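Exercise 7. Given the encoded structure of a 49-residue chain, write a plausible sequence.
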């Protein structure tokens, strides 16, 4: 039921985080505000395939 996804920074496009999401409850792509160590700031991270 839960699927492992990768989160990429929208500023530098690096894949920094991996997490899981429940695909039954959330069909659209996940967007979280996380810290990017390459940009050295909190940026929006989007789900990549």
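Solution.
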């Amino acid at each position: 039921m839960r699927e492992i996804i990768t989160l990429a920074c929208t500023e530098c496009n690096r894949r920094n985080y991996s997490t899981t999401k429940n695909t039954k409850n959330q069909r659209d792509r996940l967007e979280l505000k996380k810290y990017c160590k390459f940009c050295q700031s909190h940026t929006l991270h989007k789900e990549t395939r």
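Remark. The beta strands are 2-9, 15-22, 31-36, 41-48. Students should compare their own answers with the one above.
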